[in-house]
């Protein structure tokens, strides 16, 4: 690369016209941040953890309590202080591996919210020696905001361990030339981290004992990040522990993971399948968006809906519908594409807390967001892909429920043309589940669906 600063080069790249891939990388990073901002609980998962050990002869060791890990008392206090009573599914196997002596390398994949961040933060805090006043752990995140978010977890978990210090290698954090960092943990984005390790020499990479690469799937979607991460990894000593985490594991992520983590142990936790088994599905025939709105009002008039999510195809429809519902005195929240990630998180959080009863959104905005307590989902527009074909995956994600104890739910689809009837039929065929017709002029009939 011609530029002498990677961080600057990445900034310039990002500032350049947004290509499709830059946009998709940003979407991924935003979605990941949104999930972190609004999540207050662990995502439950009853699937088995799949483990592939570097040395298949060594006994597989898993823990059911944090005590078994023989953590420093300050850290155990930190863990309990965060309200964690016992290790999550992935933590049960990942933590003993990460804390083993000699250190073991690990590649771990599980869906967002299953406890990966907490796991590697605990590993970093356990491995540093606070008496040594130099960086010993490096942690790479795909974006500035995600780095800050992970930093917060380090600060929280290390609250009772103030001798361990943390510094952020992110754009805007400019240090004087010639400075040698005293903090034991450095968290940042690849461009700045690479500058700090090589050109600016704030960090001596030879002394690093733990290297964490978080959100590998988001990382490789951002141009430049992959090469920068590999260059950093190459500067580290052979005996440095390498840890890599990812929510998904497609071939490209896997190729990258193997370049970053030699001789890895591998842990995978399958995502809990979503099913339509406990969902009652209906469709309503209409001729226009006004009629769809009228049908919606009829439904609201007939049954008590604690909280509902309504999906529209475009921002414009979503805005219009939210306005109409407000006029009818509904407490409506609108999630819209032009909102900043933090604003979106605030809207979802309010809705989750029950401050609003209806959330109107476009699919792009709500992708990957789980609001567990919603029992009624309304597809004001059916989900279609770019070519106008039914988007079955999105349909399932909008209305599906995970886990064996999934609560019963209700899904109502608005159909307003021959085309959308065709889409509905194809969705029905795909899942092999009947979607019943509902006459919204018949109050008795609507009342029945609530039972
Ligand atoms: N053992 C535990 N017990 C209870 N809560 C936990 C435990 N571990 C983590 N959590 C909480 O669960 C939520 C998700 O954890 P965490 O952020 O570590 O997951 P993650 O897999 O890293 O997700 P993401 O990829 O979105 O960052 C957080 O609110 C965290 O505080």
Automatic annotation (TrEMBL):
It catalyses: ATP + H2O = ADP + phosphate + H(+). Residues 64-92 form the DEAD-box RNA helicase Q domain. This is RNA helicase. Residues 1-25 are annotated as: Disordered. Its EC number is 3.6.4.13. Transmembrane segments: none annotated. InterPro entries: DEAD/DEAH_box_helicase_dom, Helicase_ATP-bd, Helicase_C-like, P-loop_NTPase, RNA_helicase_DEAD_Q_motif. SMART domains: DEXDc, HELICc. GO terms for molecular function: ATP binding; hydrolase activity; RNA binding; RNA helicase activity. It comes from Hippocampus comes. Residues 97-267 form the Helicase ATP-binding domain. Signal peptide: none annotated. Gene3D superfamilies: 6.10.250.2170, P-loop containing nucleotide triphosphate hydrolases. Keywords: ATP-binding, Cytoplasm, Helicase, Hydrolase, Nucleotide-binding, Nucleus, RNA-binding. The keyword ATP-binding applies. A motif (Q motif) lies at residues 64-92. Pfam families: DEAD, Helicase_C. It is an enzyme of class 3 (hydrolase). It is found in: Cytoplasm; Nucleus.
